[in-house]
Amino acid sequence: MTTTTNKPNVLIVGAGAVGFSVGYHLSLSGANITFLVREGRKTTFQSPQQLYCYDDAALKNFTGFSVIENAAELADTPLQFIFITLDGNASRTAEGMAMLSKLGGVVRASKAIVIMNGFGIGLREHYIKVMQISEDRLLRGILGMLSHQGSANLPIHAPTDPAKVAKAVVCYKHPANKVGFQVETNNKEAAKQFIELYNRNKLSRCGQVSPAMFNIYASVGFPVYAACDIAGWPDFSAVSANKELWRLAIRAQGEIAALPQHGLLGKMMALVMGARITAYVHIKMERDMLPLDYQAFNRFHHGGKVRAQDVESMRNSLAEGQRRGHQMPALQELLKRLSEHEAAS
């Protein structure tokens, strides 16, 4: 596969909610988008596709992208970015590692920068080792908008049109600041190039996150979703009203933030992000994300799609803390209750 235009070429590994929402906005920025999907799935994701935008209650046509099942098809294509949508758990499976290993060969034979979207302690190092690439070839990214498959069957709130949602491969909603994506700045020049490319779409912005802050983002928030899971995913006012459970989750959140690898910034976050402020942040998010049902989205996403990643991240945080002499009692208790809740369900 050879691209003859001067547009930047972006390979997106995975045609799911993250891949389509980011790919659509990068296409508006003038990039050539190619999706790499599992064998046998090519026809499912062929162009054109429609995306539903909660921001203006409209369907968006996404056309002109390519779909391949083998990275070898890109042998003659100069790639600028390879965007990997695997979550942290999937990235460590045999299938995920085989995919990363193959992509590593593509990266080493090109000038492409990898942007990974999985979370978890040690995941960045895992990518570098499996892909056999240098540290400066890998950036971590965070989706700023909320995005889900059109088939997710979330509650519909006005003015959302269920008929439009039914036509969409993916639905998305931006936060109030319009930051649709954020990228790590460990390689400042590569991050700058991606931010400049993304921001050309004029509808969605790309922010930047320091490596230290990204390390915290990638692990600290999962106890809150564990508490929501145990409580049965009611709205955040109800979850935070369960004082004992909520305080347990916030203590676990603080234990993770205060791990030595998070430094002074983590210790400050552990002090600042108490029960009241954390509840305020999520209750405000519920309001700001309407008409997308924020907690129903969390149930679908954190309670289902990436639940294994979330639990694995908390267990890795527990192991890391104990290795360094921290008992992490709140995180231990929260994981115990989550396991018991899962067994009872």
Molecular structure report:
The chain has 345 residues and is of the alpha/beta class. It has two domains: 201 residues, Rossmann fold; 126 residues, no CATH class. It has 15 helices and twelve strands. The strands form two sheets. The chain has an eight-stranded mixed beta sheet, sandwiched between helices. Strands 4-3-10-9 form a four-stranded mixed beta sheet. Helix 6 links the parallel strand 11 and strand 12. Helix 8 crosses helix 14. It is globular, with a radius of gyration of 20 Å. The chain starts with 8 loop residues before the first strand and ends with a helix. This is Ketopantoate reductase. It comes from Paenibacillus sp. BIHB 4019. It holds the Pfam family ApbA.
Biggest beta sheet summary: 8 strands, mixed
**Which series of helices and strands comes N to C?**
EHEEEEEHHEHEEHEEHEHHHHHHHHH
The third-level CATH topology of the largest domain is Rossmann fold
Count of individual domains: 2
Strand content: 15-25%
**Averaging pLDDT over every residue, what do you get?**
95
Structural class: alpha/beta
Q: What is the helix content?
A: 40-55%
Distance between the termini: 48 Å
How many helix segments? 15
CATH class of the largest domain, anyone? Answer: Alpha Beta
* Widest beta sheet: strand line-up: 5-2-1-6-7-8-11-12
Shape: globular
